[in-house]
Amino acid sequence: MNNNPVCEMLGIKYPVFQGGMAWIADAKLAAAVSEVGGLGLIAAMNSNGEQLRAQIREARKLTDKVFGVNLMLMSPFIEEAVEVVCEEGVSVVTTGAGNPSKYMDRLKNAGVKVICVVAAVTLAKMVEEMGASAVIAEGCESGGHVGETTTMALVPQVVDAVNIPVIAAGGIADGRGMAAAFMLGAAGIQMGTRFLTAKECGVHDNYKEKVLSAGDRDTIVTGRTLGHPVRALKNRMSREFAKLERDPSVSPEELEKLGAGALRKAAVEGDVRNGSCMCGQIAGLVHEEGTCREIIESICADASRLMGREI
Ligand code: TUI
Fold it and tell me: Which tens digit of pLDDT belongs to each residue from 101-128?
């Protein structure tokens, strides 16, 4: 908080971002995180333009603090989401799951700060060149769409490659993880799995309970053969997907069909057997629900104590 570049740039109290979890990160969760002083993010992935506009306006009713929108670049609604973000005067977006170059100028010209999730050094350098305000270096411990490199290896390499602030993500859920990220040169952290279990998170209870009872080896990555690897809890769905992926008689189209709608099925409908419960490897460390305030304040206090200075 003392001269932290991420806090200063965004006008927030704690350098803690909430992951832009599709079907999960709504106005209520984003506002709760921002209200405490972190950066809450509304996931644009699953909303068309008008639904996103309604979410942004709802978050504004719930908090007067800064919040942002996560633009998932593979979303079918990406064009309308970019338009709405610019029209509504959202101050910050995070981008993920791809290369944001096509949208960079439009967002920047509308005064939006763009913070890009990167899974490799090359893209980090490219987005810095294009005017990104910061990057989120996300290691493959994280949930959902993942790259190939771990947080421990990725963060310091990205830190050395760019001159903009680096936020670390993937495998962080407590003060030890936050302090470790700072030791690697990060100026902030992003957490998805930890906020998935927040009291203010509206994900289906079945999903939340599965995350809270997960152990260290309970996630699996599927979808590598399709070019978009995804980490989720092991269940009937992900085991079946992994099996079919190894079967040469199953076409990529059939696999895509099996995956479509799976996250919604788990997160919204609560079908945690046939749906996809995306979450990170750190789920094994997360055993209790807590409010966003309890989560953010305890993690920052623990990290500060471990580091021997204020975050
Ligand atoms: O985007 C994420 N995580 C996500 S998105 C998502 S929604 C979904 N739903 C169904 C199937 C698949 C996904 C669930 N989780 N995280 C950010 C992230 N971005 N992680 C890794 C990357 C990334 C990877 C490659 C960013 C850029 C990149 O560059 C590729 C390129 O084209 O240069």
Answer: 999 999 999 999 999 999 999 999 999 9
